[in-house]
Amino acid sequence: MNLPLYFNKYPIFCAPSKFDKFANIVQAYTMNLSQEEIKIIFDVFDKDKTGSINYNEFIQTLIGPMSPGRQNIIQNIFEQFNKDNNGKVIISEIKLSFNSRKHPAVIKKKAKEKFLENF
After folding, report:
1. Average pLDDT along the chain
2. Distance (Å, rounded) from C-alpha 111 to C-alpha 119?
3. Same domain, yes or no, for 13 and 57?
4. 19 closest CA partner among 47, 3, 48, 41
């Protein structure tokens, strides 16, 4: 499932989703919850307390916080891409670090091309 497309396709998920839309979908697709229970759930998703849920809040709530180990791995990867140490990664920095020669799709295509050359 392409969650960003799904999120934008249905009215409840049109950014931002207000409580009434959220309550309607929860009542339609879940067990019988009271308005108070639905409001508690809504408030968990509404991270910035604006009275609406956007896509990032929705995803952040579903996946939860990253473990310290995962944060460390991501920080190390970011630092490898951030060649000029400015705290930002741009596409040209990613291109400098990216090597697709050992990617299975590249290897398979090269093998296919080599086969066709010798055919």
Report:
1. 79
2. 12
3. yes
4. 41
- CA distances to 44, 47, 100 from 92, in Å: 38, 33, 15
- C-alpha–C-alpha distance, residues 50 and 58, integer Å: 13
CA separation for the pair 96, 86 (Å, rounded): 16
DSSP 44-68: HH-TT-SSEE-HHHHHHHHH-PPPH
Do residues 17 and 59 both lie within one domain?
yes
User: pLDDT digit string (tens) for 10-51?
Assistant: 545 544 568 888 888 788 877 688 899 999 999 998 988 988
The structure tokens 């080599």 sit at 114
Question: What pLDDT is stored for residue 73 in this prediction?
Answer: 94
Picking from 37, 63, 89, the residue at the C-terminal end of a domain is 63
